[in-house]
Structures are given as structure tokens and as C-alpha cells.
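Case study 2.
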Amino acid sequence: MKAYSIDLRRRVLNAVDEDVGTKKEIAAMFQVSTFWIQKLLRQRRDTGDIAPKPQNQGRKPVFQGKNLKRLEQFIKAHPDATLEETKLHFSGVVECSIVAIHNTLKRLDLRYKRNRYMPASKTEKM
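Prediction:
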């Protein structure tokens, strides 16, 4: 959702400061919620700023930059390495889960070996 503009924020605060009406009436006038007006007033009181707060972009990937290159090189050098082995190899470098490695490999469009040890019955059929 896009943040409300600074201009709208100023107009709403001016209306509240000038007692144009109740917060409910002002909210209806500007088509915003009363809760948003309360948050805006609290933000102005606490920080002195009415600019929108930066949006949270979510968690950053564990493997970036040099570590991403190292992971790619490791997988190319050891194509039969399992996710657990890959995690063990990078245990001193990054703190991550097997799912994080899986998602990174998927992002890089690299394949990995799921299970090194196949049952004998499956290998005979191949």
C-alpha cells in the first residue's frame, strides 16, 4: 500500500490543529481513518516529523555478494553435495538454515542432489 503524501498529512494536521471538527469528521472529510490520524499525531509528537516511515522490505538474503559467489562455486565444484553438507561447509561463514540454502539455489537456478544414498532397489531399476 502506498503511503499518504506529505501534502495530505499537512492538511489533515492543520485541520486537527485548527479544530475544524472531530477526528471522525476530519477523517471522513479527507477519506482516511481516525486511527491513521491518531498515528500521525503520535508520530509528530514523538519524532517531530510527519514523513512516511520507510516500508519494511523483509528479511535480507543470507547469501549475498561474496558469499553468493562462494556458494555458486562450491555447488559447481561439488554438484553431489547435499543441502546438509553445503550448510556444514558454510557454517563458519554464515548462520543459515537448510531452507535458506534451498531458496538461494533455487534463485540461482542451480540443481542440488537431494539424497546421496539411494536404496539399492532404485539403483538396479535405473
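The helical segments are 6-17, 23-30, 34-47, 65-77, 83-89, 98-107, 120-125.
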